[in-house]
Amino acid sequence: MSLPDSFQFSQSSLQDYVDCKRRFQLRYIQQRAWPAVEAEPAKDNELYMQRGSQFHHMAHQYWLGVDNEKIASQVEGDEVLSRWWENFTGSKDFGRAMPNIPSLKTLPEINLSAPIGDFRIMAKYDLLTLKTLRVSESNHGINNQTEDPKGFVATIYDWKTSRKQPKREWLTHRLQTRVYPYLLAKAGSQLNDGAEFKPEQIEMIYWYSDFPDQPAHFPYSKKQFDEDEAYLSQLISEIQIMGNADAPLTEDERRCKFCVYRSLCNRGIEAGPLNEIDDLSEAEGFEVELDFDDIAEIEY
Length: 300
Ligand code: SF4
Known about the structure:
Blueprint: E1 8-9, H1 11-19, H2 21-29, E2 39-40, H3 42-64, H4 68-72, H5 79-89, E3 104-116, E4 119-132, E5 152-160, H6 168-173, H7 175-187, E6 202-208, E7 211-219, H8 222-240, E8 272-273, H9 276-284, H10 292-299
Parallel strand pairs: 1-4, 2-8, 5-6
Antiparallel strand pairs: 3-4, 4-5, 6-7
Helix pairs in contact: 1-2, 1-7, 3-5, 7-8
């Protein structure tokens, strides 16, 4: 059994491979559905995912110009979603004024894909903003590195509704932090007047609905682009030569607590508790992110 020819890699499928080769094999090659939840209590986990989905939907409406009162009325009675929404619309970085900045284009829920090896890699961006690049403006020094004033400064925003804010080092190595800017540099020319984005024109920002004043910024660079291209190509080459034998299970059994295949792999029956995720990361330096983004991309 191998991946279908039409398979498109994404940050979440590649993250699955990096976290556990067996999980990748079960989910994407064998396409095994397994009736288990990622975390307990199941009801709380489901509610948490629903809120993540609803928040992304509302943010999309916001950038499409739907009246804010109309959007806010959808969350009446839900204290958590109301708080997230207030944080979002009140954000000093991209509050209500942002869509009215004349030199700024806002592109919500945009998809990009590009060939890599024998496959394609795709990403679904929550929001991409394009700001006209001017000689007199400064954005992490790009104007010192390019003589061409044309084109845009591109900012990739990703909304995170996770219960905690991960450490920067962990985020740096996430496949999402590598795939999203890489793909924009590789496949975004139609958004940049026909010219490829220089990596230095790109920045990625994670914005946390419960930590609105602490966005995580990741400016991109040519060096990082080259490293990402080599790394992603290597991962995809490894996956292409996976045989039919069972792939190895992760050595870090803590991952299995929050994986639906745990009983199939004889790694326990009960799901890990939702509220243990924060304790684990504090005490053991182990990060798990149960996030709506992963589900959205798997379905994509
Ligand atoms: S239960 Fe553990 S070993 Fe099995 S697929 Fe999930 S993470 Fe991998």
